[in-house]
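User: two proteins, same treatment. go.

Assistant:
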Amino acid sequence: MAEEFLFRLILASLLGGVIGLERQIRAKEAGVRTHILIGIGSAMFMIVSKYGFYDVIEHTHIGLDPSRIAAQVVTGVGFLGAGNILVQKQTIKGLTTAADVWVTAAIGLVIGSGMYEVGIIGTIMALIVLELFRQLTYRFLNRHLHLRMRIAAGTTQVVLAWITEQGYRIQLRSLANDTSDCHVLTANVEYTDATSVNQILSSLKENPAIKEVSVA
């Protein structure tokens, strides 16, 4: 039985880590370690809920509801998810990360209960939503990009003005020091024509003040 529990914990950590890796690649608030811990913790709670009270039941003949601990996990993860949601300048940030933290907890509970196929399928579906739908949204719906750029120090206003001259609308999200001679800038860039994402990135790289640029 111990080997079975160990397998469930390992599988829950792997599935949570895969989702966390996607978030970390996108430089989101909750990364690999957070998702692994959520997966392991949720699986452990479910294992305790299903199997941790057999000794009490055998001697006292007390009936227990195994769903109560799972319900409390959902409540607790809700607080974690809320901590990832930020409101800045009328813009809500972190909703997707909060949602996948919630999904990771659900996957951990499913694996902890022994429903491996459901957990694996749920992970695959979550990755499809996070990656494929992100591409579809950028391509067909919002026509905007969330970009992360490393720029030369002291060139922020020049870079923003230059991007505007290229025909894009840009909204600065954050600016932080990277090194003494570089800043890290994140911004939303909106465009209205049929320009591809690769073309936009290529055009931005032509500016010598922009050292690196990627989709965040």
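Protein 2:
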Amino acid sequence: MNIIQNFKNIKDELSSLGYNPKIVAVSKTFSIDHIRPLIEFGHRIFGENKVQEAQKKWTKIKQDISDIELHLIGSLQRNKADDAVKLFDYIHSLDSEKLVTALIKSEKKLNLKRKYFIQINIGGEIQKSGIDSNNLLDLLKFIDGQLDVVGLMCIPPFDQDPENHFKNLKSLADENNLSMLSMGMTADYVKACKYNANYIRVGSKIFGARK
């Protein structure tokens, strides 16, 4: 599998459609040796689902390559807040007042500032993380500028056309003066770009199927 060619194909496809989102190369479950060709090619934005796995893979690389931008795209437990703030530049899964409180403490303790997306449970799915869109304003008031919230993130239901969900997330961001959208994965990133996705999260289309 030619990872570099896969990546170029995605860039070319997006460019041909007039889109230029940042691509979070989702490297969860893949070894660093599998990922390394893309790093050597010059790509710098990567996503991981789990703090512990990311620590093992990325701690040294981030020390050696200072402009690597690491994104946590999976849910975050409060007891991992310190570890997440140490390692990740962006956290896409802000979804509760308790997690907000933990992250504020971690940032102060470590003297670090990170960027955050609030995860919206856009399809109202019981099994998914994220807050109900009706609770967004309350969470933003609770945060009150204490964390650098840059935008919203969503994962639409797998069994529905995602387009309306992307449209709704964009409207929600606009209503709350949030400029960034993290939405769109391998199967639907083109549709997400139609609604101004700033970050798309692509894994298998770059790195191949996960085992």
